[in-house]
Design brief:
Blueprint: H1 9-25, E1 42-43, E2 48-52, E3 58-62, E4 68-70, H2 73-81, E5 88-90, E6 111-114, E7 117-118, H3 120-125, E8 130-132, H4 139-148, E9 151-152, H5 161-171, H6 175-196, E10 204-210, E11 213-216, H7 222-229, E12 247-249, E13 261-266, H8 276-281, H9 284-287, H10 290-293, E14 297-301, H11 302-305, H12 311-325
Parallel strand pairs: 4-5, 4-8, 5-6, 8-9, 10-13, 13-14
Antiparallel strand pairs: 1-2, 2-3, 6-7, 10-11, 11-12
Helix pairs in contact: 1-4, 2-5, 5-6, 6-12
Length: 327
């Protein structure tokens, strides 16, 4: 489910005080992101570009940013896909840092916040010249961020990783790289769909398991977009748009995660999630699933498949599907 937004009045007062002090010490890090009337992606004076973000706001950014801050998993993924290593990131869903599938590439990047929101003081300390704010909707927090550096909301209501990558490409001066990445993805997806043969029309289920139980991924989230690109069918409620990021399923209704193929994982392979899938595998209801009996159940990295996702995640998911389903 979506984590709650930042915050309490006390938290905001503390953040505001930290911002005021930090901006006094690091004046050069605290600029304005007020946009002008130029069209999205248009070049401006002084080596700047005006980009229209996911909310429709026009934001003036450096033409070639050097210190990029990524405040969502998708922003981190997009930046790395475009060859940019951010100077700060927010911890991924269920993570203490970057999502597991990006951990190697993100090694050494300081954590400046969590899914619930950024730590303003740490954001200032990172001295960003552009802030990628993901789907942050808290106007008070956004106002604080805009006093530090030009800030763009990069994820719209569709949560499309493709649209977010294109917008990020504009913001980072990497529009051509984003276009090439998407073309390469389309080619790779088309090749996989062809190689799947008779399996191309299979029913594919995706689920996340945690100490709280099982949850399925419905429409309107990252993994469903990738599976739709491949023309897969989805079982039951996975054909419908969910109210949140994932939808809990009771053990009594575990059959609802069944399909011709099942991809299931946890958000982390360590900590409290370690060993959970072994426990699930011992449950009779799980053992009776058709996908399990046919050996069509695959353990996946939940931080990649069942979280916010992104460009690199999408390509890696294609690789996972090829390995599992193409013989």
């Amino acid at each position: 489910m979506m984590a709650p937004r930042l915050s309490t009045p006390a938290t905001r007062r503390t953040a505001a005080a930290a911002l005021a002090v930090a901006c006094g010490l690091v004046l050069s890090a605290c600029g304005s992101s007020d946009g002008d009337s130029s069209s999205g992606g248009s070049a401006g004076k002084g080596g700047t570009t005006t980009v229209t973000d996911a909310t429709g706001a026009k934001v003036k950014v450096p033409a070639a940013p050097r210190r990029v801050l990524a405040l969502s998993e998708m922003d981190l993924d997009s930046a790395l896909a475009l060859g940019v290593k951010p100077v700060g990131l927010t911890a991924g869903r269920g993570q203490k840092g970057a999502p597991e599938y990006l951990s190697a590439q993100a090694k050494g990047i300081p954590v400046v916040g969590a899914v619930t929101g950024p730590d303003i003081e740490k954001v200032v300390q990172a001295k960003p010249d552009v802030i990628l704010a993901g789907q942050l909707a808290d106007e008070q927090v956004l106002a604080q961020l805009r006093k530090i550096a030009p800030t763009l909301v990069t994820i719209d209501d569709s949560k499309s990783w493709k649209k977010s990558l294109e917008l990020t490409g504009q913001a980072l001066g990497k529009a051509n790289e984003a276009k090439k990445f998407l073309a390469d993805y389309d080619a790779k997806a088309a090749a996989l769909k062809k190689d799947l043969g008779a399996q191309a029309g299979a029913t594919v289920s995706v689920a996340r398991y945690s100490a709280k139980g099982t949850a399925v991924m419905q429409q309107g989230v990252f993994i469903s977009d990738v599976l739709n690109d491949l023309g897969f069918k989805r079982p039951g409620i996975q054909n419908q748009k969910g109210e949140g990021h994932s939808t809990p399923i009771s053990d009594e209704n575990l059959k609802e995660i069944d399909g011709d193929w099942l991809f299931i994982g946890t958000l982390s392979s360590t900590g409290s999630d370690a060993g959970l899938l072994d426990q699930l595998a011992k449950k009779p209801a799980y053992q009776q699933l058709n996908a399990v009996r046919e050996k069509h159940a695959t353990v996946i990295d939940g931080s990649k498949w069942t979280s916010l996702g992104g460009a690199k995640a999408a390509v890696s998911v294609l690789d996972d599907i090829r390995k599992a389903m193409v013989k």
